[in-house]
Amino acid sequence: MHAKTDSEGTSVDASWPPRSPPRRPLYYVQSPSNHDVEKMSYGSSPSGSPTHHYYHCSPIHHSRESSTSRFSASLKNPRSLSAWKHVQIGHHDGGRDHDGDDDRDEMDGDSYGGARNVRLYFCGLLIFIGLFTLFSLILWGASKGYKPKILVENIVFENFNVQAGSDQSGVQTDMLSLNSTVQILYRNPATFFAVHVTATPLKLHYYQLKIASGQMKKFTQSRKRQRTVVTVVQGYQVPLYGGVSVLSGAEKQLEKVALPLNLTFVVRSRAYILGRLVKSKFCSHIRCYVTLRGKKLGQSVKLSDACFYQ
Q1: How far apart are CA 58 and CA 55, in angstroms?
Q2: What is the tens place of the pLDDT at every residue in 227-257?
Q3: 200: Cα within 13 Å, side-chain hemisphere
Q4: Contacts of 264 (CB under 8 A, 6+ apart)
Q5: What are the boundaries of the region Disordered (predicted)?
Q6: What pTM does this model have?
Q7: Whole-number Å distance between alpha carbons of 74 and 163
Q8: Which of 9, 83, 128, 269 could pair with 282 in a Cys bridge, judged by C-beta atoms 3.0 to 4.6 Å apart?
Q9: Contact predicate 287/307, CB 8 Å
């Protein structure tokens, strides 16, 4: 083994291990609350190393250290970390909520405006229907004062004949044939509507036995106008079966025949006041009493005072 001699004459064995390098000094950093105060670091070493002074003058370095220290503190305190996250999330979500609120407000405004328009249209429709109904009722009520005037003026018996014959089943009986015309005056007194006129068949009865009938043609009568309607009422080979005693043996003495008859029919008038939306109906039941006289065939028989109108 070789020995090594230092400058002071102390011999050192080369086999000894070399000295361990000196430990690095530990530094303790304290950040004061005031940014204007000078930041200092104090360090010491166990081997009596001289004290070193460090000056921290950069505000950027301080902000980083402050952020680091706050983050470290939040890691140590879970409640602080959760609160910080809540604040950050609330900040970011706040913008979205605000935009969502704006969108919802806009949608609510559009829906409210649409509902308001619907209500306005509905109210306008109700007002229009109410006014139209009132106007129609007024017209309908006014039309009732313009009932048509109907007058059966006369009847003319053209011919009258009774002869022996047989019915469809071959039964022997007297057969009656009659031909007549009825003249009717129809007047529409209305000032603002026309009327459409129809009638049931005009019938001549001897009590319950029908001996003649005829159909009046339908027509339309203008306002404040009148017309005369002539209808043919006739019967051909009507079996009597002995039911008309006054006609027994009257084949040769027709001039002496006096046969009481009833003329009945119904006249219906329909007025279209406002198109087909507003219309009014009038119905007249007419019954006239007339006597068929053989000696007045071909002559007009007045019925103006012999008819009843209902």
Answers
A1: 9
A2: 999 999 999 989 888 778 777 766 667 788 8
A3: 11
A4: 202, 203, 205, 286, 287, 288
A5: 1-59, 89-108
A6: 0.59
A7: 135
A8: 269
A9: yes
- Residue 241's pLDDT is 84
Mean pLDDT of 251-275: 87
Percent of the chain with pLDDT over 70: 62
Q: Could you tell me the residue range of the domain that residue 259 belongs to?
A: 147-309
Number of domains in the chain: 2
In three-state secondary structure terms, 5 is strand
Q: Are residues 154 and 237 in the same domain?
A: yes
- Main-chain dihedrals φ then ψ at residue 129, nearest 5 degrees: -65, -40
Whether the pLDDT of residue 88 is over 60: the answer is: no
Sequence-distant (≥ 6) Cβ neighbours of residue 18 within 8 angstroms = none
Q: Name the one residue in this structure whose structure tokens are 């109906």.
A: 281
DSSP track, 259-299: EEEEEEEEEEEEEEEETTTEEEEEEEEEEEEEEEEGGGTTS
Q: What's the one-letter identity of residue 285?
A: H
Contact yes or no for 154/183 (Cβ under 8 A): yes
Mode of pairing for the β-strands spanning 278-293 and 3-5: unpaired
Both 66 and 175 in a single domain? no
CATH number for the domain spanning 203: value is 2.60.40
Banded pLDDT at 213 (limits 50, 70, 90): very high
DSSP state of 254: G
Q: Which residue has the higher pLDDT, 181 or 295?
A: 181
